[in-house]
What we know:
Oligomer: heterodimer
Order of helices and strands of chain B: HHHHHHHHHHHHH
Low-confidence stretches of chain B: none
Radius of gyration of chain A: 26 Å
Largest sheet of chain A: 12 strands, mixed
Amino acid sequence: MHRRKFLAGAGAAVAGSELLPFLKSSAAWAQAPADTLVVATGTTINSLDLHRVGTNRPSYQVTVNIYDRLLSFGTKTTPEGAVVYDYAKLEGELAESWETAPDGLSITFKLKPNATFWDGTPVTAADVKWSFDRAVSLGGFPTVQMRAGGLVKPEQFEAVDDRTFRIQLLRKSKLTLPDLAVPVPFVLSSRIGKAKATEKDPWATEHFHRNPMGSGAYKVERWDPGQQIVYVRNDKWTGGALPAYRRVIIREIPAQATRRALVERGDVHLAFEVPAKDAKEMMAKGSATVIGAPIDNCLHVLCPNLAFEPFKDKRVRQAIAYAVPYQQIFDQAAYGRGAKMWGGASTEPQSIAWPQPFPYDTNIDKAKDLLSQTAFKDGFEVPLSFDLGTAEWGEPTALLIQEGLAKIGITAKIEKIPGANWRTVALVEKKLPLHLENFGGWLNTPCYYFFWSYIKGALFNSSNYDDAEMKELIDATLHLDMNDPAYTPKIKRMIAKAFDDVPRIPLWQPYLDSAMRKDVDGYTSWFHRQPDVRYLTPKKA
Amino acid sequence: MARASKLAVIGERLAQALPALAGIVIVTFLLTRALPGDPAVQFAGPAADAKSIEEIRKSLGLDRSLPEQFFIYLGQLVRGDLGQSISTGQPVLSELVQRLPASLELTLAALALSISIALPLGILAATRPDSWVDHLCRFVTTAGVSLPTFFTGLALVYVFYYLLGLAPAPMGRLDIVVLSPPAVTGFYTIDALLNGDPATFRAALAQLVLPAVTLALFTLAPIARMTRGAMLQVLGADFVRTARAAGLSGRKVLFTYAFRNALLPVITTLGMVFSFTLGANVLVEKVFAWPGVGSYAIEALVVSDYAAVQGFVLAMAILFVALNLLIDIAYTLVDPRIGVED
């Protein structure tokens, strides 16, 4: 083989290919301008209005990027070097300052004087009131989330003057202020809203669904549903430091393999939310920068359902908790991208940190021993279900659990449940005997997690756990100030009960990983698990 | 006279399609309702409680009885309203109008490509049985059927985009820096040409190449097989022998007599291939982020989006009826014996 000749030939082929449009080097294709950022996501945005009925989770990113809330969270850097939001640090977005009344029953906000909507009209307290009234009146998820912060009815909100907005609280709660920084209580133009309202649609959801009007860092320049959304910067934004990128294109790329190829080739700047396996591989290969942080207040758990006979016995649940091959799951399903939630040192929690490792480890002898004390010492059969929508980690996890349970005589039959059906059977009807679940709370306190998942009837209590003391503890702590001397002992007791009763067996705390080009900086992880593009900047050399 | 009766045949065919369409409307309505999963729960969002789920159910009209829902649906259909897709938040009709051309453009491009390879390949293979062409034909068809489109698509992306960097980024119908041409047909390549915009045409064509090749590899097999088989059969027939004996030129025998007769089963296959390709698009659409109807329907199905699923099935049914009609007409053109009976 004449190497030189071959190379010359190959060169000629490449040169010849320039004549054909589709064989041009891709470097010549996607050279977006330097101030444009391209993000690939695997999910579809279905509305520009979070309050509307039917708006899906991926659409929350629109609200984050184009609207302002009164408050926002600051950021901090994790020990691993990732930048994450800081639940303990509240900052003003529309609010210039805020003050809680001495009795704790009202909060008064002063709006920034020069905040304007994109159409140039000033943002007033009346707009904030209208938007808050809207969130508590429309029903569905926004109303539920507002209620979590003690914001229940329009009478609580008062526009004192153009720049002063007051919230009357029904009770003192530590959740109220943080709840104003989640995506839901965003502020829209009430002038447009009232003009577009109809009798059937008093909150103009049909209008805002496609035509947003806010004061946020970005405006929507173009939305092609199912394909892309294009943001363009609002240069008059007062909510924070002006974003670095003038234009941001969010492209929907359904296939994960394609998203990975795009970011590795550098045709997109950021692939948002990559599976743990790709994250690990790209990190090892160095083909893209991977940044991830544990998702606050979120756990992948195995739930034995107490409505079913074998799991009514606490010892059966504990036996299962000892039979789970944690390390193997962590290596083969989580690819190490997570925080370990097993092998805790003591059955008494040492701190109120949440989540924290449970005092279980893989110990088949102990599991057998516990099971032999029960009426089910000869083992039993049980279906083990997971949501097909989370099959990436659900499937390998379920298979490994199945193996572990087989060692103590429990035969688990794996059932894959399609996404549409999952919420109904697992969370609403709560009729899956043994299943995987992955609730994460937006507000980062242990009592908030327990409120959603350890009270009878709570949506994410898919284990049907029902315990009077636990409910009392949750009720007592949910709104209680974390500095209150009663808080820590109660939370410790709560966690100790969760250790002992194990209606939810934690497997690991997941990471949210994103892959980006090496020239992208400023990536920040958020509790809402959406890309906040306002913080991204080109990396300075 | 003959013209009038041809029109009558077409009219009759269309009339025959009506009961089928009515049946499809009823069946899809019932089937979507029989799907597991509760759309109200799905769309109530991540932290909804029983009360908010009920509120959603009411606003979706799902608290009414089935017959009531059906008549509301029929009323909407009569007004040309396919309803609102909950998952994409858009009217189903406008969504289909947007996405169907994307799928059609891809499918037609793939078919054109595969026909242009499969027909000559099939004919050559039939005229030279057991030669290298025949073996090539056999290899290509076997490989074409046995490679799943998902795999071919990913492999092509890997080689031509990821490794070689020859193909543009697989990011849908157009590169991010190119704006879509003003919509006339909905086919970007044609619209760009109509708009006199060669740059956009090239960009649209470039995006089309890899997915079209992927689909073409898949559709090539049945067409080539069928062409070869039909040609072999016809070439062995008496009238071909007679034509040869009469001293007609080989070209004349092959194309005028043999090929025309062999074309009938090929057209039938084409119709079938076209329809299943539209369905099989889904995976290719996923790999290339192609905003077509296939991926739309799958997404809708996953979240129990009734209106979208019904609209998709109905649009497909109408498309198939039109396609069948087209094939019937093509028959009468190719073979005068078929169709018109006086």
